[in-house]
Design brief:
This protein is α/β, with parallel strands linked by helices. It has one domain: TIM Barrel. About 40% of the residues lie in helices and about 15% in strands. The chain has an 8-stranded parallel sheet. Helix 4 crosses helix 5. The longest helix has 16 residues. It is globular. It binds NADP nicotinamide-adenine-dinucleotide phosphate. NADP nicotinamide-adenine-dinucleotide phosphate binds next to strand 10 and helix 10.
């Protein structure tokens, strides 16, 4: 397994990580445990969750599954999603962060978080308040590194300049949506992360599984898959236009002796600002396949050819 530094920090993260928003929802504890054990077995260390995934069960299941193996994994969680109806049960105020961090630590059954991420920007809380609270958590040892998610380029720049001016801990990562299908981050967010030294943890890297090639044109989504259980997502992804490009990408990968899964990971990892691709695996076999995908290094000629194929999509 290859490791990269998370942005400008000293933390080494596996280039392939694990996303866990299926845990506690579509996946029960037994399934979760099998996937987490395989993650450790194949040498992935990055496990990304949130206080909100699976209505808090994702963190709970992960905490139970990593018992006795805490030193082998990096636990990344998030705060900001609504956790109740009350006015202070969402966002990144000092009150909400301080309450939520202790709940996350308890559910994850750990005394420190490797990475604590602001899940969404909070327009109602000054960034100084959020950063100062996160800085306190780092000083207390509850949190080791901090990051953001779903921030616009200007919000990352504002946060980084504020941290610098006030001598507070800076964000070391950002988590935006990024895949061969969704490249908006390349305009502002990724260059901003590069300039400020944040590593990107792309979410929906496989476009919810579409970029694995397991969905076929004109056929119903295979039983038990994510898109079989979500008709709204299926109708937006399983379109003829998307299949036109997907089939081109599958041919490109096959001509080079690789699978579509390999290509979806290798293409993201060709961007040096990407630190770890946190794909949501539901089975141990998927973890093994995803881990192997991190071994393919695309050449500049490959990237040029792929740009041509992807341009047809726009
Ligand atoms: N920051 C944010 O706002 C935000 C938002 C969304 C997600 N996230 C994070 O990003 C992570 C990744 O996103 P995601 O899981 O929603 O989307 P994803 O990684 O694009 O797709 C995950 C789906 O791909 C399928 N899959 C994974 N590996 C596979 C393989 N080798 N072969 C075949 N199918 C495979 C699984 O489908 P089946 O279910 O069909 O097996 C899985 O449910 C999440 O778990 C979460 O941690 C963050």
């Amino acid at each position: 397994m290859e490791y990269r530094r998370l942005g400008n920090s000293g933390l080494e993260v596996s280039v392939v990580g694990l996303g866990t928003n299926n845990f506690g929802g579509r996946m029960d504890y037994a399934q979760t445990e099998r996937v987490v054990k395989q993650v450790v077995e194949v040498g992935l260390n990055m496990i990304d969750t949130s206080n909100s995934y699976g209505s808090t069960k994702s963190e709970e299941y992960i905490g139970k599954a990593v018992k006795g193996m805490r030193d082998k994994v990096l636990l990344a969680t998030k705060v900001a999603s609504p956790m109740g109806q009350g006015p202070n049960q969402r966002g990144t105020s000092r009150k909400h962060i301080l309450e939520e961090v202790d709940k996350s630590l308890k559910r994850l059954d750990t005394d420190y978080l490797d990475l604590y991420q602001v899940h969404f920007p909070d327009q109602c809380t000054p960034i100084e308040e959020t950063l100062r609270t996160l800085d306190d958590l780092v000083r207390q040892g509850k949190v080791r590194y901090i990051g953001c998610s779903n921030f616009a380029g200007w919000q990352i720049a504002q946060a980084m300049e504020t941290a610098k001016a006030l001598h507070l801990e800076p964000f070391v990562s950002d988590q935006p949506e990024y895949s061969m299908l969704r490249r908006e981050v390349e305009k502002e967010v990724a260059p901003c992360c590069g300039a400020y030294g944040l590593g990107i943890l792309p979410f929906f890297p496989l476009a919810s599984g579409f970029l694995t090639g397991k969905y076929k044109r004109g056929q119903a989504a295979p039983e038990g898959t994510r898109l079989a259980g979500n008709s709204r997502q299926a109708s937006s992804l399983l379109t003829n236009a998307n299949f036109d490009v997907l089939e081109g990408l599958e041919n490109f990968a096959a001509e080079r002796g690789h699978s579509m899964v390999d290509l979806a990971f290798a293409w993201l990892l060709a961007n040096p600002v990407v630190s770890s691709v946190i794909a949501g695996a539901t089975k141990p076999e998927q973890v093994t396949e995803n881990a192997k995908a991190g071994d393919w290094h695309l050449t500049s000629a490959d990237m040029k050819a792929l740009d041509g194929l992807l341009a047809k999509w726009k």
